[in-house]
User: Fold Rad50/SbcC-type AAA domain-containing protein from Dorea longicatena.
Amino acid sequence: MQINELLLKNFGKFHDRQINLEEGINLIHGENESGKSTIHTFIKGMLFGIERGRGRAAQNDTFSIYEPWDNPNYYSGTLKFASGGKHFRIERNFDKYSKKAELVCIEDGEVLSVEDGDLRMLLGEMNVDRYENTVSMSQRNAQMGESMAMELKNYATNYYTSGNGEIDLNGALEQLKGRKKVLENEIRMEMSRKQQKREKLEQEVSFIWRDVHHLEEELDRVEEELEYRAGKEEEKRKERQLEGEHGKGVMDEIRPEKWRIHPMEILIFALVIVAAVIILSRPWNYLVAIVLFLAFGLYVWNRMKVGKKQVKTEPEIILEEITQEEEKVPIEKLRWEKAHITEELKEKTIQYDNLGEQLAELDEINEQSREYEMKRQAVQMAAEHLEQLSGAMRGYLKRDLNEKASAIIREITGGKYTKLVTDEKLHVSLVTDEKLVEIEQVSRGTVEQIYLALRMAVGELLCEEEMPVILDDVFAYYDEERMLQALKWLKAHKKQVLLFTCQKREEQVMKEAGIAYHKIEL
Assistant:
């Protein structure tokens, strides 16, 4: 790709400013505040667009900083470039109310779609992160960001596995990890559902057990009451049986009904007393008579008591019958209550056993849980294999990147450093004929050379289409010799270079070395 023309219609401080660029080195010179950074940002905005921030972030974002000084509602520009043997024109309106982008092929007038990816295809799949970490370099961001290390890992997995950088195997890995998380979440949800069901069943079991325990206590109470009542009935039965066996005495048989003492009993006792007085001598006869009289009085008193028990009135007989009927009612009720409690206890026991079986089934792994686990293991295995593959492919990338960067650093340092070594985080070490030198041990000028070599090497690996190299005051820490070597390498290996500077050093060095360049004065 080669940029041919910039037209800053209304961008930052510029209004209808046209800048023509050529192949090779374009030296864009201007004092501070002359607009070099504005042009640099304009190129990036034309290629990738400018998004406006939200909230407080919008106050100091790129959109606000480079909003036109005059007539901010008309915020636009045009960029013409060549790619694949054809010339194209892209026009953008950055205004928030009428934002749009149009891409046209100049030769045949074909209108292409920026939204559908036609511009990115022309840029060789270059995106803004790759752009900022490779071909676009300024004094402030010479070191590559962490996003570039991840970009390289992804590229390594894609390209060295399939030969096609468009196959996003790292994205596939992320999808597998996402799928694994989904399955793990499903497993957790299933376990949560089982736990909720378990808790509900355990609560029901607790209630049923309490009911069973209560019914058992009630049944014991009823059985004890029935047993007590049965004992009482047995005692009464035995009493009635004993009364029937003993029957009545001789005197009871001959005594008239309703008589408490028979006349013969009075006569017999009187004769006995008289006989005792007559037969016995004095004073014993009187003493015996007195004793017999007292005994007879005691007998009469006992008979009077027995008579009261035996002689009953009609109301008393009726009351006794009623009382016996009332005693029969609780016994029948207790028997019914026992049968009812026994039946309910049986039902509760069956329900309790069924709930216990359901709880036992919850402890077993069901088919759905087994399926989730099998899928999770399959996804885990696929992700592990893909990570192993990715690691191996990054080894190939590291080898190629080190070779390309080493060739560049060897040339721009005049052979002082022959080899450059990077790790997965793009931390750099240098190899000399004698030892390994960490980047922290070399001068700032050498560090800048290393960053330039690394960016150019990464750009060659990642970018199918060669992009213009844009350098914004990057030679501030270079001495004249380092600058000369860097400019020679750029002239020899890059189709187009845009060199922004506020110094005269770059122009003087190129003049003295006979390096051709095209100058634009701001």
